[in-house]
Known about the structure:
Structural class: alpha/beta
Largest sheet: 10 strands, mixed
Bound molecules: inosinic acid
Helix content: 25-40%
Strand content: 15-25%
Strand order of the largest sheet: 9-7-5-2-10-1-11-14-18-19
Mean pLDDT: 95
Distance between the termini: 17 Å
Low-confidence stretches: none
Number of helices: 13
Shape: globular
Number of strands: 19
Radius of gyration: 22 Å
Amino acid sequence: MNIAVLGAQWGDEGKGKIVDLLTPHFSIVARYQGGHNAGHTVYVGGAKFVLRLMPSGILHPGTTCVIGNGVVVDPAALFGEIDQLQALGVEVDGRLVVSNRAHLILPYHRELDVLSEARRGQRRIGTTSRGIGPAYEDKIGRRGIRVGDLGDPSSAAALEDAVRENVETRNRLIGDSHLDWRQVLDELREHWRRMGPWVQDVSLYLARARAAGQSVLYEGAQGTLLDIDHGTYPYVTSSNGTIGGVCTGLGVPARAIDGVLGVMKAYITRVGDGPLPTELTDATGERLRQLGNEFGAVTGRPRRCGWFDAVVARHAARINGLDAIALTKLDVLDGFTEIPVCVGYRLGDTVITEFPGELGALSACVPVFDILPGWARPTAGVRRFEDLPGEAHRYLAHVEQVVGVPVGIVSTGADRDDTIVRPASPVAAWIGAR
Length: 434
Ligand code: IMP
């Protein structure tokens, strides 16, 4: 089975933990979009790892990790992460494949990201300032530099031209300092010396692996509502974290995706600007933030928090064709006497139940809630479905009913073991669990 695990909200849903949990059942974990704007946090035996560019499968020896053509790669960030992993005893060499078609994030992309945000002023996106947007702009503008260009002797002259033109454009745009294109080129050649052995045609690599009976987990970054096409544009990231990104970002056919798992928190968060219909700006929101430790893994920014939004979840279920939900951080709801679940939006005189595509309409939406009872007995650390309190069962059943997708995994704590895979769910079938 080849399974996609992707975010069904605004990112930070806990994908890292879920991918880490499922990895032992797969030969390969492949990232298909985004870059080091992602922060996938995994706790193993109490130790915390934050993976940014490296697929979350890297913590399992024997798993091969793939960075697809849809990812934008900052070589310095990649090497920094690999050095950190190696210092912790995680061997990376021989287990990493990087697409020759992946685009590079160059030093000036970070500067352009910061500049573009400053120019937008009040309308800023709230990016992670990692150069992600400008790198994708260069890709779509057909002036990007790809990983494979660095190692191809027959492209040397074209590479030199591209670096010179891009750096000259940067110098015109930024103005207050002059970057030397020769220095940028030298750095790129230096990067190739380390990166070269990992670089391959990822589509071909994955096709051969599948033909040899190996299974692939496709790992999404960010979330459906941050998707460039299906998210809250323009308050989104610059790639497709939704299911289509698997095909375009790795060069795999749609029929090579056998199942789709959507990761959602039992409430909702967002970091950065843009609409969040169920946002709580009061003490309850602060309580969720503190209990859920909702501070950005990459930037440390406080995350905005709100109640679970089934309108968002249904939007994600439809676009991605979700077979199952992994519901994370259920334990954060421990101690609340009432748990609202948003089931529609009041917009003027009507109640709508589908997520609007227009930012103006979305900003005017007021959530309509079903109110469920909280639970007195904590769910934190519960590892068997039947041991959850009755009200938590009721909450999960309600989520399934209003979203229309079964909950296959429930996460009740940060540790790998604080997780319930529901028997008889699609997830149990994928991994052969009983
Ligand atoms: P960018 O991806 O850095 O361009 O940022 C665009 C938007 O996506 C901002 O609102 C970021 O906060 C958000 N974003 C990017 N990556 C992540 C992530 O991994 N988790 C949550 N939000 C993210």
